[in-house]
């Protein structure tokens, strides 16, 4: 089997992380997240991992070192990854796939879900400290943040689109089809 590199894009709480986790558990994939490098820096600075802090850090890095800075890090991580299946979780901007799109093994997967469904998921998961008590209005505002506005542009560039308004089994079935 040839190498498979899947870039997972989608709006907040659309199911990117769930898809990556399933790829790891069911298909033995490895995963690289854009947020990992941001969390590493925030850890070193002893700063909370809030959505706002990660967005501010991402903006600062891209403004000072180039829009494709994070893409370069992900590309290097993937080059060093010997796994057969690789998930790239959290693609947010066209610049994020600038180098990956040049790889013949790369496919951009856009995961879609309705905003109400995504809001339910973000409250339930509480991945970042500022998510557990978020109101629906705050969530809608988050979807207009600088990091999130460009996500919709990726849908038209996607090789594969997954509808994730259903349950986990439906999502898993679609992922299995992609890997197959």
Q: Which properties best describe this structure?
A:
16% strand, 180 residues, alpha/beta
Tell me what you see in this structure.
The structure is a single chain. This protein is 49% helix and 16% strand. It has helices spanning 16-27, 34-45, 51-65, 69-79, 115-125, 136-142, 146-149, 151-155, 168-179; strands at residues 4-10, 30-33, 85-91, 106-112, 160-163. It has a five-stranded parallel beta sheet with strand order 2-3-1-4-5, with helices on both faces. The protein is an alpha/beta fold. The termini are close together. It contains nine helices and five strands, in the order E-H-E-H-H-H-E-E-H-H-H-H-E-H. The mean pLDDT is 91. The protein has a single domain, classed as P-loop containing nucleotide triphosphate hydrolases (Rossmann fold, 3-Layer(aba) Sandwich).
List the helices and strands and how they pair.
Blueprint: E1 4-10, H1 16-27, E2 30-33, H2 34-45, H3 51-65, H4 69-79, E3 85-91, E4 106-112, H5 115-125, H6 136-142, H7 146-149, H8 151-155, E5 160-163, H9 168-179
Parallel strand pairs: 1-3, 1-4, 2-3, 4-5
Helix pairs in contact: 1-9, 2-3
């Amino acid at each position: 089997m040839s190498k498979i590199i899947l870039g997972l894009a989608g709006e907040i709480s659309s199911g990117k992380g769930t898809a990556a986790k399933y790829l790891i558990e069911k298909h033995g994939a490895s995963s690289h997240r854009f947020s990992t490098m941001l969390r590493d820096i925030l850890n070193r600075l002893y700063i909370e991992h809030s959505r706002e802090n990660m967005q501010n850090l991402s903006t600062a890095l891209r403004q000072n070192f180039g829009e494709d800075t994070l893409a370069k890090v992900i590309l290097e991580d993937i080059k060093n990854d010997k796994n057969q299946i690789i998930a790239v979780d959290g693609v947010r901007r066209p610049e994020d796939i600038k180098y990956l799109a040049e790889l013949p093994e790369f496919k951009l997967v856009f995961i879609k879900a309705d905003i109400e469904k995504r809001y339910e998921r973000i409250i339930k998961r509480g991945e970042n400290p500022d998510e557990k008590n978020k109101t629906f209005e705050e969530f809608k505002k988050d979807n207009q943040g600088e990091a999130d506005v460009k996500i919709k542009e990726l849908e038209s560039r996607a090789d594969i689109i997954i509808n994730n308004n259903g349950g986990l089994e439906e999502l898993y079935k679609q992922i299995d089809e992609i890997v197959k």
